[in-house]
Amino acid sequence: VADWLPHDLLIKLDRCLMAHGVEGRTPLIDPQVAAAAFRLPDVLKVRDGRGKYLLRRWVEQHAPAARPFAPKQGFTVPIGNWIAAEGARLGTLVASDEAIAAIAHPDRVRALFVDAASSRARHAAWTLLFYALWHRAHVRAVPVDGDVFEVLGSAG
């Protein structure tokens, strides 16, 4: 662990942040902060199954908009909106892909893409789109670099 943090995790963090021009701080790994945290009674570290209790209480008092006790929320990508915005065009391309045509009815595939705003169709459309791209890249060994419309519209 002593080697893993500075030589792996912190390097990855730094590279990710620097790639996007973002400055990052990791104050909780400072040796003095860690030593102070170890001296705290357990009741201030964990309460009701939540760690960093004292820190969360401080944030709650000084920056309540941060909602430090709120449940974690995953980051979701609005794929349904992206696909639905170009559903008719994208659906036609995916439906005509040979890998998709071998496993699904083209009319139903096109309909899924047109209806991609609904959660059920969104997931199915996303899966078919990436299966078509994966099949091109890994089964047919066709490059999939560039715009998805160009890739799916090209012979290969």
* Residues in helices, as a percent range: 55-70%
Calculate Rg over CA atoms: 24 Å
Main beta-sheet annotation: none
Average pLDDT: 90
- Number of helical runs? 10
Low-pLDDT stretches are none
Q: What is the approximate shape?
A: elongated
Instruction: Work out the number of β strands.
Output: 0
- Counting helices, strands and paired strands, the structural category is mainly alpha
How far from one another are the termini? 47 Å
Tell me the strand percentage band: under 5%
- How do the SSEs run, as a string of H and E? HHHHHHHHHH
Total number of domains: 2
Pathway: Amino-acid biosynthesis; L-asparagine biosynthesis; L-asparagine from L-aspartate (L-Gln route): step 1/1
Protein name: asparagine synthase (glutamine-hydrolyzing)
InterPro entries: Asn_synthase, ASN_synthetase/amidase, Rossmann-like_a/b/a_fold
Catalytic activity: L-aspartate + L-glutamine + ATP + H2O = L-asparagine + L-glutamate + AMP + diphosphate + H(+)
What does it look like?
One of its GO terms (molecular function) is asparagine synthase (glutamine-hydrolyzing) activity. Pathway: Amino-acid biosynthesis; L-asparagine biosynthesis; L-asparagine from L-aspartate (L-Gln route): step 1/1. It is a single chain. With about 160 residues, this protein is mostly helical. It folds into two domains: about 5-65, no CATH class; about 80-155, no CATH class. The protein is about 60% helix and about 0% strand. It is built from ten helices and no strands. It has helices at about 5-20, 30-40, 40-45, 55-60, 80-85, 85-95, 100, 105-115, 120-140, 150-155. Helix 5 (about 80-85) packs across helix 9. The longest helix has 21 residues, at about 120-140. The protein is elongated. The protein starts with a helix and ends with a helix. About 15% of the residues are buried. The model has no long low-confidence stretch (mean pLDDT about 90).
